[in-house]
């Protein structure tokens, strides 16, 4: 198992989420970190929010390391020492529904609390928001988005689509404009590009300046069956619903089947579970509508015949 954080030859830091934890191999005795001091309230708050998510152990570790780096650099600056000014642009690689947007939003919140960002807001964009219809239009649209993102995070999903139209496509102009603003305004906003792993690797080859401008490359692996079930249980608990034993068994068996039947890129992980449960809650409401007498338990329970899977529609 690879270390969750590893340095590549090009200087990028690669982080793998949801991987099995292991103690680092060191020459000195390993000393477990102490509890976070009360003064680091911002980090504690974000860690609590990450704790409510499934499969984010290594992301929590990564956020703590970035926090520590920024915190220590501020202390060095206050002591008259040289402080690093590393750009914090990131690349998120993984399939849909693995928590990329949620994590981006939490990072913005943390960086606002640490005064790294002045607003901490998240601007979500895709190809249509960046690419124009005529020469010069794309650069203007991209500049406008960057302007909206100043003080916060510009999150571009399916970023690899910017490079799929060939040399004459305006997507390349959007890439070039983003690269320029990443350099000119590198400490005024954070750019996060997200998409499928293989496609994002190909995307990095489109512009020679892309690799070096993303010091943080983060992999979001697919959720396991147990993690998907936990996601579902947490969603239902928040809405004050629960699965019957038969419904839980049926959902588990279906998830096993759907993960094997579809390619990894075709399965939307947590998003798929959320869609199934939302449809099933509506189906339960229709069932109860036809019953004269039902109690609190009935109102809370999703039964096996309430479960509606996307493949059944």
Continuous helix count: 11
Strand order of the largest sheet: 1-2-7-3-6-5-4
Radius of gyration: 22 Å
Overall body shape: globular
Through-space gap between termini = 40 Å
> What CATH first level of the largest domain would be assigned?
Alpha Beta
CATH superfamily of the largest domain: P-loop containing nucleotide triphosphate hydrolases
Question: Helices and strands: which structural class?
Answer: alpha/beta
Using the coordinates shown, work out and report the CATH topology of the largest domain: Rossmann fold
Pfam family, one: AAA
Family: Belongs to the CbxX/CfxQ family.
InterPro entries: AAA+_ATPase, AAA_lid_6, ATPase_AAA_core, CbxX/CfxQ, CbxX/CfxQ_RuBisCO_ESX, P-loop_NTPase, Spore_V_K
Keywords: ATP-binding, Nucleotide-binding
What secondary-structure arrangement, pairings included, does this model have?
Elements: E1 5-7, E2 13-16, H1 41-51, H2 57-78, E3 90-94, H3 100-113, E4 122-125, H4 127-130, H5 137-149, E5 153-156, H6 171-184, E6 190-195, H7 197-203, E7 216-220, H8 225-238, E8 242-243, H9 245-261, H10 269-289, H11 296-300, E9 301-302
Helix pairs in contact: 1-2, 1-3, 5-6, 8-9, 8-10
Task: Please describe what this structure looks like.
- With 313 residues, this protein is α/β, with parallel strands linked by helices.
- The protein has two domains: 5-220, P-loop containing nucleotide triphosphate hydrolases (Rossmann fold); 225-312, Helicase, Ruva Protein, domain 3, CATH 1.10.8.60.
- Helices cover 45% and strands 11% of the residues.
- It has eleven helices and nine strands.
- The chain has a seven-stranded mixed sheet with strand order 1-2-7-3-6-5-4, with helices on both faces.
- It is globular.
- The relative contact order is 0.12.
